[in-house]
């Protein structure tokens, strides 16, 4: 029983999924053309149903529609008036006259159809204008709404049929047969349950009859008990009356005692009133004395506060003066601090320049030292080389002299 609603909901969702078209796209050019024709027909019907409303509000839409559409609508309105006049004056008696009027009616009907097509062609050529008119006209006639709704249902039916393949259609048919079989089984189960319910109702009626009989027996026994209770109640009343007389006598005695006590309490109350009046008079005098003291203290407080206010005004004036001096000093301090920061910055730059010049001088000295050392080494090498060459030449000269000898 707990799962029955869930199973029902699941079954209903399966039925919806099964009955919905599975294809989201058309599978042929003919289907696309049919759907396009249906959409265009819906658009034309919507605009065509708005034409009477637009004509009645032509002054309001004249600027939006433009001269060409306005003239077409005026022509359509003229043809509509002629059609209404001809229909109202249609005669049934004279055959020749009626035949002539029917011919004029057919001709006027053809012209009215051409006028409608022309107006729709001009309106549908401007989609923005169509949207403006749909939102501006607001409502259509009741027959037009019914027809549009019926045509929309026809369009939905056609889309479902066109987007449903033959295999899906067979599946739907099979599914509907399964649903019918399931409904038949459910109806049989409902019939069986109704029979069980009827049997249970009959059994309950039998139990109710038995219960009614037992209630009748109980009512009879209650009547017997009521008679017994009446006798006992009479006895209780007699006993209550005797007890009431005794209690009345005792209450009279208590009332006398209470009256005596009330008199004594009244005398005490009068004495207390006199005593409280005397104490009230003393308290009133004390209150007047305290009020006078409070007035004196308030006057003294006002005088002290006036003096304190004068001192505060003097101190505040001195504070404002010192504050102005402090602001002047702060401005001077800011200027001096700015000058000091400039001086420190200049000193820092001079120090950096000195350090940079010192580093450059050290670098130049090192470079000069290196160049001098290199030059000394170079000259020493050249000197040694020349010396070696001279020594070699001198040795060769000595050897040649010895050979000549």
UniProtKB/TrEMBL annotation:
Protein location: Cytoplasm, Cytoskeleton, Flagellum axoneme
Keywords noted in UniProt: Cell projection, Cilium, Coiled coil, Cytoplasm, Cytoskeleton, Flagellum
Keyword match Endoplasmic reticulum: no
PROSITE patterns, per the entry: IQ (PS50096)
InterPro entries: DRC10
Coiled-coil region: 176-203, 241-275, 312-360
Superkingdom of origin: Eukaryota
Function field: Component of the nexin-dynein regulatory complex (N-DRC), a key regulator of ciliary/flagellar motility which maintains the alignment and integrity of the distal axoneme and regulates microtubule sliding in motile axonemes.
Family from the record: Belongs to the DRC10 family.
Name of this protein: Dynein regulatory complex protein 10
Organism: Centropus bengalensis (lesser coucal)
Lineage: Eukaryota, Metazoa, Chordata, Craniata, Vertebrata
Gene for this chain: Iqcd
